[in-house]
Write a structure and sequence with these properties.
There is one protein chain. It is built from seven helices and ten strands. The protein has helices at 8-15, 19-27, 45-59, 64-72, 76-115, 143-155, 211-224; strands at 34-35, 41-42, 123-127, 130-139, 168-172, 181-187, 193-195, 198-206, 229-239, 251-258. The protein is of the alpha+beta class. A hairpin with a 5-residue loop joins strand 1 and strand 2 (41-42). The strands form two sheets. It has an eight-stranded antiparallel sheet with strand order 3-8-10-9-5-6-4-7. Strands 1-2 form a two-stranded antiparallel sheet. The termini are far apart.
């Protein structure tokens, strides 16, 4: 055989795939080896070109059937149509990666911002209106938060980053009896809910969830200052089980809005 002929093992090594995958492409009509005088399969330079096309299109999510149809009806017009499909998928992938990159950068910024934040100190801050995806459901167990977070991602068209929980918050129930939480939200400018802006009292603390205890701290401070707190009562998760295994590394922030005087 000439140097333009390759064995199935050589093709497998060139493309870092198993021989079973190459045989699968043969069965589907994507590759057409020839038999040498010794009875072995050999693949020509045309097969190398086909493998390049297969690898690129499969990497973009094209089905085997779609690739086979292209090979069986390859013209300048069908090639142009295929290239336009590729371009559309590449643009969508780039958009997805851009959003993911922004999400990861935001999480890094959050982790760095909270590293030196004073703990167990009540402070007053003015916050702008904030948009978020929200699900309202009474619950008490922390384990339910992850399920609700997954549902929030679906609310956002699958575009909400789930790498970590830095933008996740829970709504604390104002009552001291019954369920601890009233729902979850994820801060996102595309969110379907808007939290009111204004003056808030907040406190950062370390360790497992103690939402009501720290909300009571804010209430006591507000009462001492002649202020009244109003919903939303938020616990923002800055570091939790998704960030560190040791609960002593968990950091949360409880926020409560100061009710404006009429």
């Amino acid at each position: 055989m000439s140097k333009d002929a390759y064995t199935i093992g050589e093709i497998a090594r060139i493309y870092h795939i198993g021989t079973d995958t190459i045989r699968y492409y043969e069965r589907k009509g994507l590759l057409k080896p020839v038999r040498g005088e010794n009875g072995y399969r050999y693949y020509s330079g045309q097969s190398i070109w086909r493998m390049n096309v297969i690898r690129n299109l499969r990497g973009l999510g094209f089905s085997v059937e779609r690739i086979r149809d292209y090979f069986q009806n390859r013209t300048a017009r069908t090639t142009e149509a295929l290239l336009r499909e590729e371009l559309s998928l590449i643009d969508a992938r780039l958009d997805q990666l851009t959003r993911l990159r922004q999400s990861v950068l935001g999480q890094l910024e959050d982790l760095q911002a909270v590293r030196d934040i004073p703990l167990d100190e009540i402070r007053r801050q003015d916050l702008p209106p904030r948009r978020a995806f929200a699900i309202y459901r009474d619950y008490s167990r922390d384990e339910e938060t992850d399920l609700l977070m997954k549902q929030l991602a679906e609310h956002g068209g699958g575009q909400v980053g789930l790498t970590g929980n830095q933008r996740l918050a829970v709504l604390i129930s104002p009552e001291r009896e019954g369920e601890v939480f009233r729902g979850v939200l994820l801060f996102d400018p595309r969110g379907n809910q808007e939290l009111p802006g204004g003056a808030y009292l907040s406190i950062f603390y370390r360790g497992p969830t103690q939402s009501r205890r720290y909300l009571d701290c804010l209430r006591d401070r507000a009462r001492a200052r002649g202020l009244e707190l109003a919903p939303p009562f938020l616990e923002i998760i800055w570091q939790d089980i998704h960030t560190a295994a040791d609960p002593e590394e968990f950091i949360s922030e409880v926020q409560a809005r100061i009710r404006e005087e009429a």
